[in-house]
Amino acid sequence: RAIWQEAADQYQKAHPGVRVQFDYLENEAFKAKLPTLLQSKDRPSVFHSWGGGVMVEQVNSGVCQDITKAVESGGFKDTFYPAGIQNFTVDGKIYGLPNDIGPIVFWYNKDLCQKAGVDPTQIHYWDDFLAAVKKLQAAGITPIAAGGKDKWPLHFYPAMLMMRVLGKDAFNAICAGKNGGMANPDVVKAFQLYKELAALQPFQKGFLAATYPDAAGTFHDGKTAFHLMGTWDVTEGRTDATDGKGLPDEKLGWFNFPEVKGGKGKADDIFASVNGWLVVSDAPKETVDFLKIMLGKDTQTKLAAAGLSIPMVKGTAEAIQSPFFKAIAQEVSSSNWIGIAMDQLLGPDTGRV
To answer: Which of 148, 303, 319, 347 is deepest in the core (most CB within 10 A)?
Structure first.
């Protein structure tokens, strides 16, 4: 917030008469309030977006502004990684800009894994992961934290299993309703693999009533060995821990979601939230001008250096101090496929379910 406010102060100083105001909402409250807000006279000039089908619906309903010319002038568009721009493009027109990327990985508690004799660096396949879950249970350790009430934290499992079983082309075909859509045998297989995990009852007690912040706090309180979550979990989870500090770097590790034997997906096929901003149809021209400061290299470098995000702006990766973010940013830059969360990808109707 402080870094964003700095960007606002800088812009306001250079543009007397323009006021930049941030309105913050918690994740679920934001999703619930946004549709109504966008139809009201109080709608913001710019709002957070994860792209995907939800964005397409917003564009089709006339809520968003085509900012292609504004971001192409002066080469601002080229300061971002192409995959980030692509995420906010519909039918060749740019309606928003990327802020950062949050790849989903397995975070683990080194002490608990060691206690159970589990070596997470050796978890390469789904079978290895299931074996690790059983080993943890045998040692009396709850394997996984999950925020079941919010639904999206649990959808990571079947969605990533689909990626690992199907691979990029088949996955995209399924999401477009081809090859039998969700009834495709490989999709069914992915869900069966998820069911095998669920049958082990690996999650913390009461996980279906737990929100994401509850689960993040549970993991960072040292009560479970694993948490499948985005990079934001390092900062957020520590905040949600009972002591407000959570697990220190030396007690924390991560690994990619495992491959499925015989599957077409690879361990470095990344599933992520690509966070960004969409500009509203009647937003003043100053909006994109301000985004050039807020999403400019200087501001984004500060966010990277503070360990708050993995920016989608070129040349910011070297500013990342966090060893976790540095390594994950490296994975992002070499990945051939970045899939986005399916609750956004499939549009509001399917995504909500």
So the answer is: 303
